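Case study 2.
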Amino acid sequence: LDDELSPAQQRTLERAFGGEQAGIKVLDRTALILDIFAQHARTREGQLQVELALYQYRLPRLTRLWTHLERQSGQGGVGLRGPGETQLESDRRIINEKISSLRRSLESVRAHRQRQRNSRKKMDIPTVSVVGYTNAGKSTLVNALTTSTIFAEDMLFATLDPTTRRAQLPEMAVHPEVLITDTVGFIQKLPTQLIAAFRATLEEVVEADVIIHVVDYSNPMRDAHQKTVDSVLEDLGAGNKPTITVWNKLDLVEESLEEVSLAAVEREHTIAVSAKAKQGLDNLVAEIGLVLTELMRDVEVIVPYDRGDIMNEIYTQGAIEYEQYLAEGTYIAAAVPTALSRKLQDIRVDMEAEEVEELSEAEMWKQLAKKRQATANP
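Prediction:
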């Protein structure tokens, strides 16, 4: 059934259809999705996450697994021997212990991923997360941009574990190198057990600088799928992040790339591509560069002549707007990433240098969203 059933509903339906004696087994939407996830979990992290979701799903349904509820004999000496516990109680206790163990293991995974993200931040390389409805072509797009070989097949949830690859994009004057992360696909009515279990994975989306939302343009349900993904991003707290919408799989539609591209131009930050045929990727790279530039902050600094390291960071991470050689150093007006603007605090000469705003990340995204909305609606 294409919906989630309560344990009571599942038992009632199985009895109505004759149950397992008649060879009938009732599966709801959640059970089917969890089964697919279990088949596609290849890494230890993915297996832990799926196992946790499965146990959380099975726990309230234990009563349908046991028709014999005999009690185990109580343990202890005279006066301490009780009625013991039923098989159901024993299994419930075992599953609760297993869930606690899996949660501890996943907390360790989460801490490890956070250390990885912190290491990537120190590299001062922008991160881009690729999201989308399942089977929209996310992994194929990541492979096309990074020349990597992430597993990509025409199937539901081919990718469960986030995979980050470094992409060399020399076409971008600013940030010719980015880190691109492939993520698990979304789906309508995504089971709450999976959202909770895959928290460590989904945090990659929240921590990204830019999101690429891949839409299967050949699918007649693309608008509904896009709304589903947007809703999940809102629930994750990533709804205000800069997002590029990519209409993918143009090799499967009757319209030409040029025709769809003209329609895409009418929408903000929307690009038409065929990741499989590697068409339209130049436009996507240019759009990534444009969005990353929007995230930068304008600064004016005077760099001492003995600080070649600072000059190198500004040249490699920023966009130079003006440069002049003075007696005390090189005056530079540039747009740089926020992290670099803070490192330049001691040598800044513009008004903002007097008091650098320490905004939380959420506040930064809100301000950027307001700025883009004002630009779109003058």
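The chain has 13 helices and nine strands.
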